[in-house]
Write a structure and sequence with these properties.
The complex is a heterotrimer of chains A (about 130), B (about 475) and C (about 450). With about 130 residues, chain A is α+β, with helices and mostly antiparallel strands. Chain A is built from four helices and nine strands. Chain A starts with 8 loop residues before the first strand and ends with a helix. Chain B has a seven-stranded mixed beta sheet, with helices on both faces. Chain B has a four-stranded antiparallel beta sheet with strand order 12-13-15-14, with helices on one face. In chain B, strands 4-5 form a two-stranded antiparallel sheet. In chain B, strand 4 and strand 5 form a beta hairpin. The longest helix of chain B is centred in the C-terminal third of the chain and has 37 residues. The radius of gyration of chain B is 25 Å and the shape is globular. The chains are: A alpha+beta (about 130), B alpha/beta (about 475), C alpha/beta (about 450). At the B-C interface, helix 2, helix 3, helix 4, helix 5 and helix 6 of B face helix 1, helix 2, helix 3, helix 4 and helix 5 of C.
């Protein structure tokens, strides 16, 4: 699995966001997925939930850890990835594609300026 | 092994009950259970064989060396088991001292509790004890609630509790459960960094929770400065007594500056762990916190010991009665047997054993901090992971094949690939030498045959289990075969 | 006697290996100003001396009391096989089963215990144990608060007063409102339960021994999306409607009556079971069934990420050590009795209590306070205050029941009488005769 994808922006809590159609698609990075290990459960937000930038979006559980994940942008939850209920492991092998977590509508695009691009995120992870 | 349910046969019975000697009674139809509970039907011999068989799949201190860090898996003396089962103690109804005429019928139990409180006061230097908390974590929660009561009484609006970054998980969990926000404080050279601590101190801090020695087995050298700084802003010092085994007779929490202390009787005072309880977590406090202790308090009256429920500042009831009495009896008997000198020798030999392992294991294994430890020592398998892809988990599983229970792994969090070893004082030198030899074999295997370690354990009834599968496809109870 | 096996030779050799001259040097890291200023405990005793002291203390307590005292903690028959099996060192000297491969005994027995509790309560997932019924009640209340994100709890006034007191203590520093009210039927809930209510907590049989059908009350809670929580008496479940059948979301209670001695207040057993959708909110340990790398069935701790040792301050609870050995005792008890035996024990309790009511109601001046139905406990009203009456009977070796005045001001003449399968007809007759004789 690739480390990062160029078209996304990144948070220092290891979430990524990319714009697709009118929606902001959000997931966790390969680094985060690797740190967590085999993911066993994902707690997703309700559709319609309103989030601030870096507000708590949900929880990802693996056998050894339970990590909160945060919203890279201010916005409203339009969709949550229900496929993860049956197979949370999708995140472990396709975190940027089929393993997306949440899609936001009415997002605040300015928030993207506060986030890292792929290169900056890779430097950030390298320093951890 | 088959489960009980799978062995059930209709009509089998394992217990005998007396015949009815009074007229039969009927439960009203509309209140009766419609679907039967489908509990297994087995004869006594089948039940006995089943549980005997299960026990043989288990490892206990009675089986062998069990060096879990911060758990103090010392030998559980058998005379304490007998004590807790004595008629007069085991069959006493807890409400007796709460009714008129019942006090004289429970004086023996109340005297035992009072004497245990006194023993614990002398051991820790604290002014007053409650024996009610039912486990260490319960003691922590109680201690934090006492902290909250103290600040409420003084009109201090405090919202934070500080913990070291090496703290056991129950510390922040307990603080959060009592409504506080938890702030970690960094360590330096393995102990709490007093400057980092002072930087985090404010008038929002209710208290700080520490253990000493800490989870790295080191004495918190800056305690005096930390306690002084905390008390200056009226923050309270809380002592997690999990590691008391290291300092019995050599240091007392009260004299180290602590205001609240909890003890783990199932660790330091030799009561058995039971596979996960029952334990007991008595809490001791300095005088100015005594008024907040839970109800009821044991007091001396003209007619003997009685229970005092009239304590307006008390936080209230935290347990149904006086604590896990059956566990308290064992600790009381243990302390009687050891006495002052015995308890001191406990600390001396616990620390002796841990340092012996530190030095001997240190030749092939990377110790987390290169200095003398107290009762436990932490190693890191990070170098083995980097060089041979052998993790702390692999080491643990390989030790099982060597006939030992593994030490604690992946704790404390501040050490990568941590192996936390607490031998306790009840192990012989021969056992420690055998453990070292086993660890040397594992170090050899890491270099020459790491796959062998990754396949471990192979000598147990089951090998490594699919924990991911267990979490993804939850199966926590057998669904009944027949319906309704 | 200190169980320290080291000889002088051992000490010398070990100190040499470490590079120290004496045991005292092991403690150099303790600054001198922090050393213990005194160490003042009595010298240690030998095993026979300790035994003598314990026997002395045991001898100062009641022996052979005929016990009609209950109030949530009962004198039940415990088969000998329970203690015999619990005393196996592999069970009681083991630790929490973190290393699954070497703890299959503990783990499988916990899985079986979880199964038994689910079947008993009619719910779908149970945990490995909590400390006791009172802390279990608090944990259930907090589960409701977290799940619904509401902060109001409604608690029935006939829930054990000890548990209600504990709940008040634990919620004192939290953002939670506890409303206690007499809930006798669904009508009582009008105006009490609303869309701000997190949970409704009721006990069945209640503290006064009365059995209810809580279905309608729980249905009302469900209408408002509040959690229905039932505190129950496990032996009663051998006969009466289960929490599952009544629509409870969470069932909990005190497991002491399942093979645990009274032991002056503990150790006891908090059990808890929930509907499937609440499984991730369960506090405490949970054991799951799985397979190993060769496809063999095995058991391991699961859902650990909710627990303190991983989730830390966001944990579902802080519980670590629980009551594992007590849960094992309960499991052994239930296996010995089996389904039919449990039903028979419940019927014995029911019948003996009914007989006692009949005898006591016939004592001039005594009257039954409630109408029933009951399980094995009931209230009687005496012509005078019950506490002095009980005191006099205690002197004769008879614990007649719990005088209710201390817990319920206004009920000074009431007595709560419990009758278990251990009480013979002769003992019940003696109770009635003694009460008659005191007028």
């Amino acid at each position: 699995m690739v480390e990062t994808i160029k078209e996304a922006k990144y948070t220092n809590e290891h979430e990524w966001v990319r714009i697709d159609g009118g929606l902001a698609v959000i997931g966790i990075t390969a680094y985060a997925a690797e740190q967590l290990g085999d993911i066993t459960y994902v707690e997703l937000p309700e559709v319609g939930a309103e989030l601030e930038q870096m507000g708590e979006l949900g929880v990802i559980e693996s056998v050894k850890a339970a990590a909160d994940f945060y919203s890279p942008l201010k916005g409203v939850v339009a969709e949550a990835n229900q496929a993860l209920a049956d197979d949370p492991g999708i995140i472990n092998h396709d975190c940027y594609g089929q393993g997306w977590l949440v899609k936001l509508k009415d997002y605040e695009a300015q928030g993207l300026d506060n986030l890292m691009d792929a290169a900056a995120y890779e430097v950030f992870v390298g320093g951890l | 092994m088959k489960t009980l349910f799978e062995q059930s046969r209709p009509g089998r019975r394992g217990a005998s009950l007396p015949a009815l000697d009074v007229p039969q009674a009927q439960a009203p139809e509309n209140l009766r259970r419609q679907s039967p509970p489908q509990l297994p039907e087995l004869s006594e011999v089948e039940v006995v064989r089943h549980f005997t068989g299960l026990s043989r799949l288990n490892f206990g201190v009675d089986v062998g060396f069990y060096p879990l860090g911060s758990c103090t898996m010392k030998y559980n003396p058998k005379f304490t088991e007998e004590a807790a089962r004595l008629p007069g103690l085991a069959d006493l109804h807890p409400l007796l001292p709460q009714i008129e005429g019942g006090g004289p019928l429970s004086q023996g139990a109340l005297i035992l509790l009072a004497e245990l409180e006194e023993q614990l006061r002398r051991i820790t230097g604290m002014d007053a004890f409650t024996l009610q908390p039912l486990a260490g974590a319960h003691g922590e929660l109680t201690g934090i609630m006492l902290m909250a009561a103290y600040h409420r009484r003084r009109g201090n609006g405090r919202s934070l509790v500080l913990v070291p970054d090496s703290a056991h998980g129950t510390n922040p969990a307990s603080a959060a459960m009592a409504g506080y926000q938890v702030v970690p404080v960094a360590s330096r050279d393995g102990v709490m960094d007093p400057e980092a601590f002072e930087a985090k101190l404010s008038d929002q801090v209710a208290g700080v929770m520490m253990t000493c020695p800490n989870t790295l087995g080191l004495f918190e050298t800056h305690l005096a400065r930390i306690a002084e700084a905390a008390h200056r802003v009226d923050a309270l010092m809380y002592y997690d007594g999990a590691n008391l085994n290291a300092i019995l007779g050599y240091a007392k929490p009260a004299e180290l500056g602590f205001d609240i202390v909890h003890l783990n009787l199932h660790k330091t005072f030799g009561t058995p762990h039971g596979g996960g309880g029952p334990g007991a977590g008595p809490v001791g406090v300095v005088e100015r916190l005594a008024e907040f202790l839970p109800l009821p308090r044991l007091v001396k009256a003209a007619e003997g010991l009685t229970l005092d429920f009239d304590r307006p500042q008390s936080i209230g009831r935290i347990a149904p009665f006086y604590g896990n009495f059956g566990v308290l009896v064992k600790a009381y008997a243990y302390i009687l047997a050891l006495g002052g000198e015995g308890l001191k020798r406990v600390a001396e030999h616990a620390v002796l054993n841990a340092n012996y392992l530190r030095v001997r294991l240190g030749r092939r294994w990377q110790v987390a901090l290169d200095k003398p430890c107290l009762h436990e020592v932490v190693f890191s398998a990070a170098d083995k992971l980097a060089a041979h892809h052998v993790s702390a988990m692999d080491v643990a599983k390989a030790l099982i094949d060597e006939g030992f229970h593994p030490p604690t792994v992946y704790f404390p969090l501040v050490v990568k690939e941590a192996l936390m070893i607490e031998p306790t004082e009840t192990e012989t030198r021969e056992t420690l030498d055998e453990f070292v030899a086993a660890m040397e074999r594992i170090a050899d295997a890491a270099e020459t045959d790491p796959d062998k370690l990754k396949a471990a354990p192979v000598t147990t009834p089951v090998g490594r289990l699919d924990e991911v599968g267990a979490a993804r496809n939850l199966d926590v109870a057998l669904i009944p075969q027949r319906s309704g | 006697m200190d169980f320290i096996p080291h000889t002088d030779q051992d000490r010398r050799a070990m100190l040499a290996e470490i590079g120290l001259g004496s045991l005292a040097e092991l403690f150099e890291s303790i600054p001198p100003e922090l050393r213990a200023r005194s160490w003042d405990l009595a010298p240690g005793l030998s095993e026979p001396e300790v035994s003598r002291r314990l026997q002395e203390l045991a001898g100062l307590n009641a022996r052979g009391l005929t016990c009609f005292l209950g109030a949530g903690f009962y004198d039940h028959f415990i088969p000998a096989a329970v203690d015999a099996l619990l005393s196996r060192g592999e069970f009681y000297t083991a630790y929490t089963p973190y290393q699954a491969e070497t703890s299959q005994g503990t783990l499988q027995s916990i899985y079986e215990y979880q199964t038994a509790i689910c079947r008993l309560t009619g719910l779908e997932a149970a945990n490995a144990s909590l400390y006791d019924g009172g802390t279990a009640l608090f944990e259930a209340a907090m589960m409701a608060v977290r799940r619904t994100r509401r902060s109001r709890l409604v608690v029935g006034a006939s829930v054990n007063p000890i548990y209600r007191a504990m709940l008040r203590t634990y919620t004192a520093n939290l953002d939670v409102e506890v409303v206690e009210a007499e809930v006798l039927d669904q009508g009582s809930l009008d105006g009490l339960i609303d869309d701000k209510t997190a949970g409704l907590i009721l006990q069945n049989p209640d503290f006064f021994g009365r059995v209810h059908d809580l279905g309608p009350c729980f249905a009302r809670a469900a209408e408002h999306k509040a959690l229905a929580i039932m505190s129950c008496y496990p032996l009663a479940l051998g006969l009466f409607k289960s929490p599952g059948e009544m629509g409870a979301d969470i069932a909990l209670g005190e497991g002491q009556s399942l093979g645990l001695p009274l032991s002056f207040g503990g150790p006891y057993l908090g059990f808890m079971a929930v509907k499937k959708d609440l499984i991730r909110t369960l506090p405490g340990r949970v054991v799951g069934r799985t397979v190993d790398d060769r496809g063999r069935v095995g058991y391991c701790l699961t859902l650990q990420t909710r627990e303190q040792h991983i989730r830390r301050e966001k944990a579902t609870s802080n519980i670590c050590t629980n009551q594992a050995l007590c849960a094992l005792a309960a499991l052994i008890y239930l296996s010995l009795l089996g389904e039919a035996g449990l039903r028979e024990v419940a019927e014995l309790n029911l019948a003996k209590a009914a007989y006692a009511r009949q005898r006591l109601a016939a004592v001039p001046g005594l009257r039954l306070v409630d109408e029933g139905p009951w399980f094995n406990e009931f209230r009687v009203e005496l012509p005078q205050e019950s506490e002095p009456v009980v005191a006099r009977l205690l002197e004769k070796g008879l614990a007649a029941g719990l005088p209710l005045g201390r817990y319920y001001p206004g009920q000074e003449r009431n007595l709560l009488v419990a009758v278990t399968e251990k009480r013979t007809r002769a003992e019940i007759d003696r109770l009635a005769e003694s009460l008659e004789g005191l007028r």
